[in-house]
Structure formats: C-alpha cells, structure tokens
Amino acid sequence: SNSAGEHIVITQRVAEARLLPDRTTTIWGYDGIFPGPTIRARRGRPLTVTMRNELPVPTSTHLHGGVTPADSDGFPMDLTTPAGYSPAPPHQHGAGARVHEVSRDYRYPIGQRAATLWYHDHRMDFTAPQVWRGLAGMMIISDDEEDALPLPRGDRDLPLLICDRAFEADGSLRYPMRDMSMASPGAGGEFLSGLFGDVILVNGVAWPRHEVANVRYRLRLVNASNARRYRLGLSSGAELVQIGTDDGLLAAPVTLPEVVLSPGERCDVLVDFSAYPIGTEVTLRNGFGAGPAGEIMRFVVTRKAKDDSRVPARLSRVPVLTRADAARVRQFDFRFGGGRWQINNRPYDPAGSLAAPRLGTVELWRFTSDFHHPVHVHLGHFQVLSRSGRSPEPWEGGWKDTVDVRPYEAVEVLVRFAGHRGRYMLHCHNLEHEDMAMMANFDVV
Ligand code: C2O
Ligand code: CU
Ligand code: CU
User: Fold this and answer.
1) Where would I find the Plastocyanin-like domain in this sequence (predicted)?
2) Which of 53, 212, 349, 425 gives the lowest tally of CB atoms within 10 Å of its CB?
C-alpha cells in the first residue's frame, strides 16, 4: 500500500479443493481457491490487480458491478493466454481482440460507493464452463459513509457466495458440454435453460453449518450460479432486514420475509439471532428449490455475546431517478431465435454496438423476454422503475446492475452512465445464455 494505490497479484491456477466433505475436486481457482480471495477495497484508493494465468486456457476477468475503464473491464476477447498457448484463441483477430501473454494488470479506480461486487471469468464462448470450474470471487468496497453506521462488523459481516454445482462420483465437477461454442438446440437442447447442479455451495462448501452468537449478523448474499434463481428466507420465519442491493446501501432498511436473487444479483441483509436459545439451528432456505436444493446453509446459535449493532433508520443518500430524467428510451428484447439466445434478434456481434448513450446521462432501458433472463449491464448502474406496468419487487430498490427479467415481462430500468467512455456490454447473466450469444455491446460516448 502506498499513495499510488493498492497492488495485488492473483494467480489463476489448477488446484485441489475441498468442496464436498469426503473427496477433493480439481478446480480452476484465483490463487487456486474457490471462491477466489475476497478482495477488500476502499473508495478513493485505486487498486491494480496483476492477474497471472497458469491455467490451460485463455481467460478474461470482469469485475461485476465495477465502474471500470473499458480496457480493464474484462471484455470477452481481451484475453490473457497461458505461456506458449496455441492454437490462437478464437476471435483473436476480431474487433476488440487483445491478447496478453501470461499476465496483465487490471486497473480499478474504486471511485464508487461501498458495495459487494464479485469478479469472474468472462472469456468469449467459455464463461459458463470457466466460472463453473471455479473462476469467481468477491470484492468488498468500503467507504466512510458506511463506516459511520452501527452495522455488524468483523466476523459478524459474512460475505456468502452461493452457487450450485454437479459432481461426478469421484468428486470432479460435471459440466456436460465442454465446448459451449458448439451449442445448438439440436446438440445441446437440454441446456437451453442453463446448467443446474444438485449441490448447493456457499463459499465453496456444500451446505455449510456456521456457528453464530445470539446477535445481529450482516449477510452479503451473492448469487454466483450459472443459471439457478433462489428465493431466500429463514426456516424460523424471522424476517430479513435488507440494507443493500447490487451496488451498495439502500436509502433505508426494508423488512422482508424473503428475497429473490437471480444469477449475478446481490442482496445485503441483517439477520438477528438474539431471540433464539443457545443450540437453535436456523436454516437459510431456498423456496424455489426442491429436495436438497431447497436448503442453502445452517446457522447454529452456540454462544451469547454483547451486541452493539443497530438497524439505522437511514442508511445512505440515494437519489431517486424518475422517468423524466431519461434522455432517451431504448428497448432490448431477450429472446430465442435462429437457433440461439439473442438480443433484438441478433446474436452477439463482437464488432457491433446496439446503443451509444452519452456519458453523464440517464436512459430508460426496457427489457422484454420470452424466458427467465437475468439482464446485466456493465458500467452503468440502474434503478428498477417498473415490471410490466407494476411496481418493482420490494427487494429491488437502490442501485443495481442486474435485474431478474421473468418470462414475458417488460422491465423498465433507469440507467445512469457515469465514470468512463468506451465500449461496454449488456447480456443475460444466465451464463449458458451468455455463451450462446445473448450479449450486445454499447458505447458510452
Ligand atoms: Cu457478471 Cu458481464 O458479467
Ligand atoms: Cu458486469
Ligand atoms: Cu437468458
């Protein structure tokens, strides 16, 4: 650490991990672990991450939710190849293609407010299998505004990266299709809804049990699954106090029985264990899951402790955008057609661009769909305005970067383009859909 900012080095490598209780699993991990190291960043302190690639495949690393210059955003063809890699990666010579050998620096200005972000692989055509193998981790940004609040901290602030995976009997990860670029409805019809696993992992451990004191905890929930949506609530029926969403704190807390998280979304909630006698088990459940997929993890109240946290009545200053703020309206239709998942009837064109919003403006983007498509926008954070003419869900307040667009819905969001000019993308965060071409570029001008 110095005045020029922070610098860390992360090495992507093949490693053995203990995801299941009784066997080991070969993963591709940032620093050889899954999830990758939780990066702690501070608003106003720029961070450089030197990313080294010791995997057998090219990679591109994207900071999801990051307000990042385009050349560090993890564009799908902005690849870092292993030493002596051949053959040349596909798309190497296309628009936006850049190749770094073995290592490169990603520069993150960290000018944005406190939030729970995550980073993951974004390689063209192979994001889904490479994330499935372990290339995902969290970044927690803190700032002065959040530090001033009496929220739970230290070991009472739990970042929880949730994902589902499938395993072979020997413990290896099962991803049925090795090469998603070969996907077509004929060849891969069973993956059209994305890939699901029957094991739920939290921070890389199957259905963990976590010991807690009888106090309030902060859970930073990240849905890092390829395709699975969760309806999260507590087995005790106790309410969740939501304090934040994808890109930071809400204006004020919201009390809810459950929250729904689609792939890529985050939710920050407070859970109070003070009402439970020592020995009580409370399960974080998934109302959408059947059988084992209906459980995420267990908390066991094992000790008494003093609690000096509180639920503040006000959390943050969040300006509320309105329809009148939108400089223009654009529609993006997420739909199956021509044998693939497309946006506005087009498969991803690395050289094309569907929109050119101006830096410093707000636009109203309307997302329509034929299926579940968690729509994610790079760079621009947004507020959800409406769902097919109705109000957004109660857990969708504040600044977001991913929205759960459900079948045949029209979801309106107000996107603010701030921070950087350049080429960014929007896409479906069902990672199989993303690899099957449901992406588009836009240029902030
Ligand atoms: Cu989390 Cu472009 O993705
Ligand atoms: Cu992103
Ligand atoms: Cu989709």
Assistant:
1) 21-145, 335-444
2) 349
Are 294 and 416 within one domain? Answer: no
Report if residue 1 sits inside a domain.
Answer: no
Question: Do residues 296 and 160 both lie within one domain?
Answer: yes
- Minimal-distance CA residue to ligand 1 atom 1: 64
Edge to edge, the sheet with strand 439-444 lists: 402-405, 373-377, 422-428, 439-444
Locate 220 and state its tokens.
Answer: 């930073």
Site of tokens 């090219």: 58
49 lies in the same domain as 110: yes
| 201 belongs to a structural domain | yes
Give residues whose Cβ lies within 5 Å of ion ligand 3: 373, 428, 430, 433
- Using a 6 Å cutoff on CB, does residue 416 contact ligand 1? no
Give the end of a domain, one of 128, 146, 164.
146
**137 touches ligand 1 (CB under 6 Å):** no
Establish whether residue 122 lines the binding site of ligand 1, counting it when its CB lies within 6 angstroms of any ligand atom: yes
- Please check whether residue 318 lies inside any domain of the structure: no
Q: Looking at the CA of residue 65, tell me the nearest atom of ligand 1.
A: 1
Nearest CA to ligand 1 atom 3: 64
Residue 317 one-letter amino acid:
R
- Are 218 and 293 part of one and the same domain? yes
Instruction: For residue 79, report the phi and psi dihedrals to the nearest 5 degrees.
Output: -100, 150
**105 C-beta neighbours (distance < 10 Å), count:** 12
Residue 124, domain CATH: 2.60.40.420
232 neighbors 261 (Cβ within 8 angstroms): yes
Helix/strand/coil percent split, the chain, to 5: 10, 45, 45
Distance 28 CA to ligand 1 centre (A): 18
Give the residue from 122, 146, 170 where a domain finishes: 146
**Domains of the chain: total:** 3
Q: Is 157 helix (H, G, I), strand (E, B) or coil?
A: strand
Q: What Å distances lie between residue 90 and 87, 130, 338, 427, CA to CA?
A: 9, 16, 22, 20
Whole-model pTM?
Answer: 0.95
Give the pLDDT of the chain (445 residues) as one tens digit per residue. 445 689 999 999 999 999 999 999 999 999 999 999 999 999 999 999 999 999 999 999 999 999 999 999 999 999 999 998 876 655 555 666 789 999 999 999 999 999 999 999 999 999 999 999 999 999 999 999 999 999 999 999 999 999 999 999 999 999 876 444 444 443 444 578 899 999 999 999 999 999 999 999 999 999 999 999 999 999 999 999 999 999 999 999 999 999 999 999 999 999 999 999 999 999 999 999 989 999 999 999 999 999 999 999 999 999 999 999 999 999 999 999 988 899 999 999 999 999 999 999 999 999 999 999 999 999 999 999 999 999 999 999 999 999 999 999 999 999 999 999 999 999 999 999 999 999 999 999 9
